[in-house]
């Protein structure tokens, strides 16, 4: 028997076994495995951008067809979907923490459980608790001239929602909008970031085991899949990421007139008032800055500090960092930078600031040398920053904190307003009138007073940017509304006077118009 005959026999035997033990998809998988295991070498056909987009369009078409066939899901069906989502998230929480840590190189499991699991579960539970009232039709007033007709506002699902999520909180920023899409009665396709492949594959597996593939579908892959995804004619598209990529996504969505929710970023300031405790401010600001090693869209990006208080604030930042992270390299609580590219970007910010005259304060509580391979980066305070430094132009997304001084609250407010509206603003003050002034005279996506980031964790507050930091909202009822069509309906009564509006127009209409148009 020749070698080719041996290969043929191996294939035939395996195919026969497959056909006797399985049917449908299992049979096809066994055949594919048998063919793969032969010694015949077959080169894979490379996927083109066009084929990737065609496959995704076919998937979206199937989901839209399923949406039309299935109709509008009732309250009970939506609750079941939310419960299934919460159950799988809880069941896989430890696996998700491990996957995220592997993707990062080292990511605090506690931070994952807080920011990715706890916050997301809170959003799911909040939607479930308020779903009945959110779904109710709303009666609207009818003008006297149209009585006894009646009007109402009905809330209906849009169809299939596209969700493009980032790498920094890969579970929260994918599953939280998914929860609201499902609460609103939609189906959804998700495209997680290619920078967290382990987490993306795990989420794809979780969703496949939990939902029908025409209800929730996760698209894995790289930039090519992401570009194709953004071109699909979704009924609504959610993107969380950088402002520069947000522009590209919005441009692609515009080709289909797809409405978008863009959660972007920007340089979120932390304004410390002259009378506020520096120790308290430093502790809270450094906690927000070093959580996830600063890789948070609402992390404080720079500090506005009263002139003459920099040295004292620096010492308090050192104390706060040492208390939270006695060591960095071997500390599982301190996360790595997600990739070599982002590590190099942040290192470039440090070098650029130093070359342009900034004073850098390295926060090194354990006196350690951190290897580039670990991608753990020392926190730095950047003193005397200039506007032409990249650390003052780009959203930092890392453990670097510029400190800008001001001479008056007027000057501090002007500094904020002279720049694009940030995603978040933090003000540290005990003077209520001054707090109100900062709130009234600035504009940002959200605000936390005397703390950082916690406005995002409030389940009944919407979350969203303004201007270059984003558009639209999700979280809370505003998220449910974003994924719903508010459909106005007028019910005509059997008794009505609208026949007077039909031509041929006569004296009765003229008499009515004299009454109405005055």
Spatial ordering of strands, largest sheet: 10-11-12-9-8-13-14
The CATH H-level homologous superfamily of the largest domain: Aldehyde Dehydrogenase, Chain A, domain 2
Global mean pLDDT: 91
Helix content: 40-55%
| Basic shape | globular
Strand elements, count: 16
Q: Give the oligomeric state of the chains in this entry, treating copies of one chain as homo and distinct chains as hetero.
A: single chain
CATH class of the largest domain: Alpha Beta
**CATH topology assignment of the largest domain:** Aldehyde Dehydrogenase, Chain A, domain 2
Largest sheet at a glance? 7 strands, mixed
Q: Give the count of helical stretches.
A: 18
| CA-CA gap between termini | 102 Å
Output the radius of gyration.
28 Å
Give the SSE map.
Layout: H1 3-21, H2 24-37, H3 49-70, H4 75-91, H5 93-104, H6 109-135, E1 138-140, E2 150-157, E3 160-164, H7 172-183, E4 187-191, H8 197-210, E5 216-218, H9 223-230, E6 236-240, H10 243-254, E7 260-263, E8 269-272, H11 278-290, E9 302-306, H12 310-324, H13 340-355, E10 359-362, E11 380-383, H14 390-393, E12 400-406, H15 409-417, E13 424-428, H16 432-441, E14 446-449, E15 470-471, H17 476-482, E16 484-491, H18 507-516
Parallel strand pairs: 3-4, 3-6, 4-5, 6-7, 8-9, 8-13, 9-12, 11-12, 13-14
Antiparallel strand pairs: 1-2, 2-16, 7-15, 10-11
In short:
By secondary structure, the chain is α/β, with parallel strands linked by helices. 47% of the residues lie in helices and 15% in strands. Strands 10-11-12-9-8-13-14 form a seven-stranded mixed sheet, with helices on both faces. A six-stranded mixed sheet has the order 5-4-3-6-7-15, sandwiched between helices. The chain has a three-stranded antiparallel sheet with strand order 1-2-16.
């Amino acid at each position: 028997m020749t070698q080719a005959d041996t290969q043929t026999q191996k294939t035939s035997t395996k195919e026969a076994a497959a056909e006797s033990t399985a049917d449908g998809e299992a049979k096809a998988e066994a055949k594919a495995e048998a063919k793969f295991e032969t010694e015949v070498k077959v080169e894979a056909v490379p996927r083109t951008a066009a084929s990737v987009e065609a496959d995704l369009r076919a998937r979206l078409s199937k989901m839209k067809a399923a949406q039309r066939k299935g109709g509008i899901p009732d309250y009970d069906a939506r609750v079941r979907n939310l419960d299934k989502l919460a159950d799988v998230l809880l069941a896989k929480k430890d696996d998700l923490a491990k996957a995220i840590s592997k993707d990062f190189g080292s990511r605090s499991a506690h931070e994952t459980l807080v920011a990715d699991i706890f916050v997301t579960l809170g959003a799911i539970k909040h939607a479930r608790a308020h779903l009945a009232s959110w779904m109710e039709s709303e009666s609207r007033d009818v003008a006297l001239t149209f009585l006894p007709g009646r009007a109402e506002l009905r809330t209906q699902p849009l169809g299939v929602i596209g969700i493009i999520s980032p790498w920094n909180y890969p579970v929260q920023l994918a599953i939280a909008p998914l929860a609201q899409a499902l609460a609103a009665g939609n189906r959804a396709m998700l495209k997680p970031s290619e920078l967290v492949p382990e987490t993306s594959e795990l989420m794809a597996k979780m969703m496949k085991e939990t939902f029908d593939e025409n209800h929730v579908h996760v698209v894995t892959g790289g930039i090519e899949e992401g570009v194709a995804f953004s071109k699909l004619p979704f009924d609504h598209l959610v993107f969380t990421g950088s402002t520069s990529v947000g522009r590209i996504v919005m441009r692609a969505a515009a080709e289909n007139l797809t409405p978008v929710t863009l959660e972007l970023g920007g340089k979120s300031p932390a304004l410390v008032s002259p009378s506020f405790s520096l120790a308290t401010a430093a502790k809270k600001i450094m906690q927000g800055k070093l959580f996830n090693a600063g890789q948070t869209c609402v992390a404080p990006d720079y500090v506005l500090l009263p002139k003459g208080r920099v040295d004292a604030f620096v010492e308090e930042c050192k104390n706060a960092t040492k208390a939270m992270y006695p060591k960095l390299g071997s500390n599982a609580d301190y996360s790595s930078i997600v990739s070599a590219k982002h590590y190099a970007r942040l290192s470039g910010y440090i070098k650029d600031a130093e070359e342009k005259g900034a004073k850098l304060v390295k926060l090194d509580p354990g006196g350690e040398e951190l290897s580039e391979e670990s991608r753990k980066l020392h926190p730095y305070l950047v003193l005397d920053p200039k506007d032409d430094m990249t650390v003052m132009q780009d959203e930092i997304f890392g453990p670097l904190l510029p400190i800008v001084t001001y001479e008056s609250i007027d000057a501090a407010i002007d500094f904020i307003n002279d720049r694009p509206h940030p995603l978040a603003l933090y003000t540290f003050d005990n003077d209520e009138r001054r707090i109100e002034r900062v709130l009234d005279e600035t504009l940002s996506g959200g605000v936390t007073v005397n703390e950082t980031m916690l406005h995002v964790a409030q389940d009944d507050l919407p979350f969203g940017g303004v201007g270059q930091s984003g558009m639209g909202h999700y979280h809370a009822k505003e998220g449910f509304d974003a994924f719903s069509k508010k459909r106005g309906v007028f019910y005509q009564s059997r008794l009505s006077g609208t026949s007077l509006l039909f031509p041929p127009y006569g004296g009765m209409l003229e008499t009515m118009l004299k009454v109405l148009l005055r």
